[in-house]
Amino acid sequence: MRTSNFFLTTLKEIPADAEIISHQLMLRAGLIRQVASGVYNWLPLGHRILSKVQQVVREEMNRAGAQEVLLPAVQPAELWKQSGRWEAYGPELLRFSDRHKRDFCFGPTHEEVITTLAKAEIRSYRQLPMNLYQIQTKFRDEIRPRFGVMRSREFIMKDAYSFDRDPEGMATSYQAMYDAYNRIFERLGLAAQAVEADSGSIGGNFSHEFHVLADSGEDAIAFCAKCGYAANVEKVGLNPTGAGRPEASQALTEIATPDQHTIATLCAFLKISPDKTVKTLIVDGSEGQLVALVLRGDHDLNAVKAEALDAVAKPLRFASAEKIKNVTGSTPGSLGPVGLSMPVYVDHDAAALTDFVCGANREGFHLTGVNWGRDLDEPQSCDLRQAIDGDPCPNDPDLKISVRRGIEVGHVFQLGTKYSESLDANYLDPDGRSQPFFMGCYGIGITRIVAAAIEQNHDDNGIIWPAPLAPFDVCIVPIGLRKSERVRHAVETLYKDLQLAGFEVLLDDRDERPGVMFSEMDLIGIPHRIVVGDRGLENGNVEYRKRGASESVDYPLTDLVEALQTLSAL
After folding, report:
1. Residues of the chain with CATH 3.40.50.800
2. CATH number given to 15-236+403-455
């Protein structure tokens, strides 16, 4: 491909609305352009990369025994109502009506459609196991699309669905997909980590997320380097320390704390540490009541753990200030567990405190010297908080976990019979009895992988693509192409020879200054750059530099193709 014929649209300046590196570089390198909030055009350079991702995904899915289908993007509401997700999914589901006033949605996922397909076509145990996959455009109406394609509304996803006779078969299919995902990310040159995860709105009770580790990641991942434990922090279980609670040493005292509505300002005002305080969060209960969740002041609530409480409404909803005022007489910034007339659940670490500080349930006042069992009932202790760096490992409390940021690029689920039972999708077993399918669901974010790869592979000059993702393998940058016949002949011969050797080549034949061409080739991240000029050709050489290397080296022109074949294999 010659740049004179290629739709190359780079930008010199960083767009003002691009917050993270991948979004900045995807815009600057001309991979994408925004059409609407969270909706993007993929330009030729970006589309080449998407195609590379899809090719690897297809190869590994086929290798694992899955078969490709294509399901409709638009789905009838009846299926979602039958599964119970029409209302449960929330506002992210884009709902609309056709001209006949029939309700539809733009599919964010395809469990209902694929289950209905299996119901109609798979009748006997002899047809099982079955695994069907697609690569399809999805839409989720995110309230705050951001970070470019990292959290967009429209995106491309590979989703697969397995159908088995029993839990054992489901587990086998799940493991095959788990292994396929590991191969996919390895082949794409990405450092990815599989972690235990919450199943969320998809359902099921067992799942793993695959995360590309990057500082810009939206998710926090917990690891234990010694035992190999890995999980999303929302799944890390934390047990009581086992240490006894110290005896109370302070009297309960109410003090004035004007305008101190956060833990940070309160601690600065009282000159105390946050771990000597508790915060009280009021949420809607499952039976119309309010529920109080109490945590140590320096800890954050884990929404997944909170939703697991029977008394808490699902999804988790924080109570309005008006509701809180009506029930407690106070505003959120002055709340505390003393004297509350509602169910109170206390995190293990908060339950271990003595002589702590909390809100007095009176605007502008707090209590000091508060103690469980004396000033209020012994707490109903449970695991409510988010895990943090240095917490005990769930596998071995003598070990510690580390917490890093990750970008979720894949998720695999064991669904069980959630969808087959709700949609009445059954097969006949060897005894002729009707049985529900045991299902698995397996997603990979195709567009998100592109952004995640950039977050993991870049420098100050631009993108450094892992070789399997690069839009081109080699770029040729001529010096004096229009002035030197020797350069022109060498460039055209090299261009053809590299293509014959199987390389995807971008020849920069624009009438631009060398500095401009060098900078743009670095920006778009082509792995290998060859500079051809009269000075080098006088000695039979061309200049070679690998993307990301600090120095260039000279190679004999006659040996270059063979040398590149060796370098590309490294």
Report:
1. 472-569
2. 3.30.930.10
Q: Domain 472-569: give its CATH code.
A: 3.40.50.800
Instruction: Tell me the C-alpha distance between 45 and 30, whole Å.
Output: 7
In eight-state DSSP terms, residue 246 is P
Interatomic CA distance for residues 188 and 208, integer angstroms: 19
CATH H-level superfamily of 253-382: YbaK/aminoacyl-tRNA synthetase-associated domain (3.90.960.10)
Residue with tokens 């590979």: 158
Q: Is the peptide bond before 15 cis (omega within 30 degrees of 0)?
A: no
> Which among 349, 104, 380, 85 has a CA at the least distance from the CA of 242?
349
Q: Among residues 328, 346, 406, 338, which one has the least CA distance to residue 150? A: 406
Segment 479-507, tens digit of pLDDT: 999 999 999 999 999 999 999 999 999 99
User: Whose structure tokens read 């034949």?
Assistant: 509
**Distance between CA atoms of residues 293 and 279, nearest Å:** 8
Give the tens place of pLDDT for each residue, 31-74: 999 999 999 999 999 999 999 999 999 999 999 999 999 999 99
Torsion angle in degrees (nearest 10) through CA of 74, 77, 78, 82: 110
Q: Map tokens 């060098």 to a residue.
A: 518
Q: Give the residue from 139, 213, 158 showing the smallest Cα distance to 411.
A: 158
